[in-house]
Amino acid sequence: MDPIANNRAEAADLATLMARVAVRDRDAFAALYRQTQSKLFGVIVRIISRRDLAGELLQEAYVRIWERAADFDSAKGSPLAWMATIARNRALDEARRATPVALEDMPDSFDPAAEDVDPLASRERSERLAALMRCLQTLDAEKRQIVLLAYYRGSSREALAKRFNRPEPTIKTWLRRSLSDLRDCLSS
Amino acid sequence: MTLSVDDDLSAAEFALGSLDSAERTTLAARRQREPELDEAISAWELRLAPLTEIVPPATPPRDYLADILRRISGEAANDNVADLKRRLRRWRASAIAAASIAAALAIGVGLRENLRPAAPHEFVAVLQKSADAPAFIVTVNIDTRSLTVRPVAAPAQPDKAYELWIIDAKLGAPRSLGVLDQKNPTAPNLSAYDPAVVQSATYAVTVEAPGGSPTGQPTSAPVFVGKLIPTGQ
């Protein structure tokens, strides 16, 4: 049932739905919700583990998607990536409003490159994702994991410092260096 | 691009999600008024967004579609509000125009007692929770003491009733004007009320048991409130 993010036909369908949503088509919006809810919930619940709260944030994300649908630009990425970014931002805002993530809330093992991936999507990754993954592979393992934890779990520098038993300024330096390297790699 | 390297990397961390609360809030505020920073954040979000492709889906606790559709239904009301505001502006403008003409005429003919324009007869009240959410429109004609209440965007109350109240210091306790139809206009009887009170009163809607409040008094705080303004006709 879930759309495969980079399945081109499905992405085209989502883009069509987005265009209809932009002109206030509620049926299209309902269809968009049906097709993408579990994907967006997956994004949110990894950052906000309380499912009831994550559900609330999911609703807010869709309200924003409705409000901002006209801003979506298909030249700049897939509809799903755009929607997921809105959902992530909402979850991150909430994560920073709540108490900092406790150490025990952190996953024991996290290896997005292996098990914690959508099995369908991993077969047909988009070119953008393939490029990003290639660049992530150029980082050393610990730095890569720090970047991915920040992205998937919304882990703050402070939480990462505790988890990796490094001083916070070191984490900040690593994050910034890694992001800078990623950008250089992506534009090369 | 004149964005500093430091700001660009803050933008990167904003998009990544690693900033603490204070830094995130600061950057979120700055991006509102610094287009370059806003662009940098968007660019970083775009670079990292493919990572969401491999997030495994998760089933939400329940289906939220109905809730979301209810939340966005305010949007339709907004269109009504814009339309209403335009109409109200027009009504006010014509009221002011009528008053000015009357005043000019009065001065012209030197009749001091005619300085006050003729009292308007038609009034309208928008009963709403907040400025952008009108629920009912009340129109009143003082001459005929007729009042009409039209639902605009009041959420349906399947097992409850909307009850209209007229509230004025001269009346003491709120007086019921009856239960409102949730879909069609209702025309409560105003003949028992003094025109001055009808004009100055506050109109409020509460949610009550079907058939209206059993006590004859509101059992809950008003959900929609408004006062009459002249339409200038």
Number of domains of chain B: 2
The top level CATH class name of the largest domain in chain A: Mainly Alpha
Task: Note the total helix count of chain B.
Answer: 6
Rounded to an integer, what's the Rg of chain B over CA atoms? 27 Å
Indicate the low-confidence ranges of chain B by residue numbers. Answer: 76-81, 101-118
Tell me the name of the CATH homologous superfamily of the largest domain in chain A.
RNA polymerase sigma factor, region 2, helix turn helix motif
Structural class of chain A: mainly alpha
Question: What overall geometry of chain A do the principal axes of the alpha carbons give?
Answer: globular
Most extensive interface, residues per chain? A-B, 73 and 39 residues
Q: Classify the beta-strand content of chain A into a percent band.
A: under 5%
**Total strand count of chain A, please?**
0
Can you name the CATH architecture of the largest domain in chain B? Sandwich
Strand order of the biggest β-sheet of chain B? 3-2-1-8
